């Protein structure tokens, strides 16, 4: 096994149980504004939220208003739910059976810190960011989209990538949905593969939507294209290491 293959081996999940560790990891999600996917038991729909406050003194946290807001009534009625977030390739997840309090201004939900958090280093794969001057054109299309969406590739790893779109496209896409046609104009030719939408966030201040997708059922050919591109960016990053902040 070569070094790069060894680096990609998933690490076994850890279960965090101390309030200090749990609060520290929720703060990571909060400070990086990493999106959360919320699912309720025996319901298939997914909802998006964010951690917006972590209070170690009271052992409480606050979650942002859910998108779509339909999920709020399940939460308000005390239905247990699962929360999953990703931070730099680490899956941070927990289950909540405690009653959350709905807060009006700003619309949010307060409740106790989870008793256990699963911390899972899914990959050690290098995630390469592109320089703003050389962002790559991408397009997402499929049966669930009336028109293809065109944007820019911000960063990429062997398992997925982050994208940027002008304007607010948050109503046109759905978390957890697989889009059959993702096209990226790589320097050595187009790559095409299905992708699963893992997070979506519209930044009103700059009129830009950020999306994160995971490659879905990639062919061997496309996987080699992605690995080649990531390796190319990795070499460039090493060459200009002093100027880059990954």
Automatic annotation (TrEMBL):
Stretches assigned to the PilZ domain: 121-232
Keywords associated with the record: Bacterial flagellum, c-di-GMP, Cell projection, Cilium, Flagellum, Nucleotide-binding
Highest taxon, organism lineage: Bacteria
Domain Type III secretion system flagellar brake protein YcgR PilZN residue range list: 16-118
Pfam families per record: PilZ, PilZN
Signal peptide: none
Gene3D superfamilies for this protein: Electron Transport, Fmn-binding Protein, Chain A, predicted glycosyltransferase like domains
Name under which the protein is recorded: Flagellar brake protein
Source organism of the structure: Pseudomonas petrae
């Amino acid at each position: 096994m070569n070094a790069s293959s060894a680096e990609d081996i998933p690490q076994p999940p850890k279960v965090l149980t101390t309030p200090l560790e749990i609060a520290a990891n929720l703060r990571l999600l909060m400070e990086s504004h990493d999106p959360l996917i919320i699912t309720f038991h025996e319901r298939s729909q997914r909802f998006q939220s964010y951690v917006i406050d972590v209070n170690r003194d009271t052992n409480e946290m606050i979650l942002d208003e859910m998108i779509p807001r339909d999920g709020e009534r399940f939460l308000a009625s005390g239905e247990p739910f699962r929360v999953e977030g990703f931070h730099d390739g680490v899956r941070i997840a927990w289950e909540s059976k405690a009653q959350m309090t709905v807060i009006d201004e700003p619309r949010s939900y307060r409740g106790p810190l989870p008793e256990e958090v699963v911390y899972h280093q899914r990959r050690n794969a290098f995630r390469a960011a592109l320089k703003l001057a050389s962002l790559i054109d991408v397009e997402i299309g499929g049966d669930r989209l009336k028109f293809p969406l065109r944007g820019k590739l911000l960063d990429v790893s062997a398992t997925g990538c982050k994208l940027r779109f002008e304007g607010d496209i948050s109503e046109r896409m759905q978390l957890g949905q697989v889009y059959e046609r993702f096209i990226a104009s790589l320097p050595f030719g187009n790559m095409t593969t299905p992708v699963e939408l893992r997070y979506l966030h519209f930044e009103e201040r700059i009129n830009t939507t950020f999306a994160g997708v995971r490659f879905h059922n990639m062919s061997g050919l496309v996987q080699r294209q992605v690995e080649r591109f990531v390796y190319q960016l990795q070499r460039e990053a090493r060459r200009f290491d002093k100027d880059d902040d990954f």
